[in-house]
Design goal:
By secondary structure, the protein is of the alpha/beta class. It has helices at residues 18-26, 69-83, 102-109, 127-140, 157-167, 185-200, 234-241, 246-263, 283-288, and strands spanning 4-12, 44-50, 53-59, 87-93, 115-120, 144-148, 210-218, 222-231, 266-275.
Length: 293
């Protein structure tokens, strides 16, 4: 039997459940998931291997109108998802009416590659609303194959994945068969800490934060990590740390538990907070954190 392999890129507005779907396909928590918009900042690859296939899934940031340099870089990741896709997944959710960027929407409706339109969160809709939404989106994107799904409960996820494999071109694998992602281990440490900050802090704080893991030493039975949380202002540093360090300690404890599950061994995590003024609008700092333009 011929081997199939290809890139399957997932795009959509913020909060439609792209990361939940990606993690469901891969069977591992590669993309962080919170209820806040702009949780995903990078383009993250998740690799699923079978005997005769390799699916390279790509989770991209939610489509927004950029307000500063960091968001411009995030949208560059989305643009790149159109360039190498063999199959394009366009995700929408119940109640959604349009994509936030008209140019991206035209690229989808004019796409020459297969497009799967997934209507997510159908577990939150009654039959009448589901039928109305299905009709709306099939008219808007007539070139797409339509699937109602629930990424959270797993409804129709297996069926969509089987269809993806059918659509893949014949090709040898792009990555070693035991590889799960294209990102280094430190990236997942950074993202796990950032997820806890998104969960526990309000307003501007989570969006002014970047995490940089400066040390990662793996021993036989423990991994020792040292991560720095960057904020833009001194006042934000105080909020992150909290009264007598209590807020920072909570982030550290929760992140460590998740990282021990992810790496399958004991973790020692040290967290520090530093002020890095206006890093979101500094091209050198963005490049350092992997937001290359």
């Amino acid at each position: 039997m011929a081997h199939k392999a290809g890139f399957v890129n997932i795009i959509g507005n913020p909060n439609v459940g792209k990361s939940t779907l990606m993690n469901a396909f891969v069977g591992e928590k590669l993309s962080i998931i919170t209820s806040k918009a702009q949780t995903t900042r990078h383009r993250i690859l998740g690799i699923v291997n079978g005997d005769d296939f390799q699916v390279v899934l790509s989770d991209t940031p939610g489509i927004i109108k950029p307000a500063y340099d960091l968001q411009e870089s995030m949208m560059d990741f989305v643009k790149s998802a159109f360039e190498d896709a063999d199959v394009l997944i366009y995700m929408v959710e119940i109640g959604e009416k349009e994509l936030k960027d008209e140019a991206f929407f035209k690229k989808i409706t004019n796409s020459k590659i297969p497009v799967l339109l997934l209507l997510n969160k159908i577990d939150k809709a009654d039959q009448g609303l589901l039928e109305d939404q299905a009709e709306l989106w099939q008219k808007k994107v007539p070139n797409a194959e339509f699937y109602p799904i629930s990424a959270l409960t797993g409804f129709n996820v297996k069926e969509v994945f089987e269809r993806i494999i059918e659509l893949l071109p014949e090709s040898p694998p792009f990555y070693p068969k035991d590889q799960l992602t294209d990102k280094p281990e430190r990236f997942f440490v950074n993202e796990t800490v950032r997820e806890k900050i998104l969960m526990h802090y309000k307003k501007e704080i989570p969006y002014a934060v970047e995490v940089d893991t400066e040390e990662f030493f793996e021993e036989e039975d423990i991994i020792r990590m040292r991560s720095v949380i960057m904020v833009e202002r001194e006042s934000q540093r105080g909020i992150i740390i909290g009264h007598k360090g209590s807020a920072l300690k909570r982030v550290g404890v929760e992140a460590r538990k998740d990282l021990e599950k992810f790496f399958g061994k004991q973790v020692h995590l040290e967290l520090y907070v530093k002020v890095n003024k206006n890093w979101r609008s500094n091209q050198n700092q963005l490049k350092r954190f992997g937001y290359n333009k």
